[in-house]
User: Fold this.
Amino acid sequence: MKKVFASALASLLLVSVNVSMAAGDAAAGKAKSSVCAGCHGAAGISANPLWPNLAGQKEGYIVKQLKAFRDGTRSDPMMSPMAKPLSDADIDNLAAHFSSLK
Assistant:
């Protein structure tokens, strides 16, 4: 009985992880990215060395950093307020967009 429960729980956790790591919609991210372009460039390449390039960054990295800014585990006077209103879907979509750029 314990093995069946443990197996079912493990399967459920794997499904949960896969759902939470689902890729965002790059087209929706592009539509939302106009605010990002002011610092990070329209094509995700920053003209200012103080701001990182987002083009080609790994999707998971972008998601992790935006959620950290949004949730307050990472703080920056410019990025924190920009990330605060983003939903998980917005973050997934922006990450899909910028990671698709070269």
